[in-house]
Input
Amino acid sequence: MSWESSALYYELINEAVKERLGGLHSARAVLASVDFAEIERMQSAGAWDEAGEALAGEARRLEAAGAELIVLCTNTMHKVAGAIEAAVPIPLLHLGDVTAEAVRAAGLGTVGLLGTRFTMEQDFYRDRMAGHGLTVLVPEEKDRDDVHRIIYEELVLGEVREESRARYAEVIAGLAARGAEGVVLGCTEIELLVRPEDSPVPVFPTTRLHATAAVDRALAD
Output
């Protein structure tokens, strides 16, 4: 939902199209960029129905502009994925499914989940992954507080701090000690901060996985 992660999506999608098709090819894409301050207000207020209506409206505009596949560039707002799917006939590529499939393909069964407080504490994302046969662990409460705070006070503003990278590494190590075989970077902005070398277990970068899966789907024909 922040333009910081939207820009990363746009870059990754175009890089993947160029890699697949070569030459001067780039992605045929329609981008609906929302005002993240409005979305954050709805999140904080628990106004999920309002948020679902807002994103459903964006989906209708995307379809009218010619989109044939929708990619919702956020983990947290998949809480309202159903509202989007109900609003338009074109498919939504669900980020939880893409991520779970990548974890299963890696042969793992238990993963840690980092994300906003909404993603870590509510069941819409964890249950989606559990539906693929995965066990999902979340950080302890104090760790969840720090993970959430760093996202909203730093990463969505484009601030990448070494002390925050070290804090995330501590949280990841704690999840690994509890049995996580991998860790899902379940907020699109986290990839701005956490690198593979910051984790003792494999990381699953949801933005990159989602962007790649979108290109796979779009070019399947």
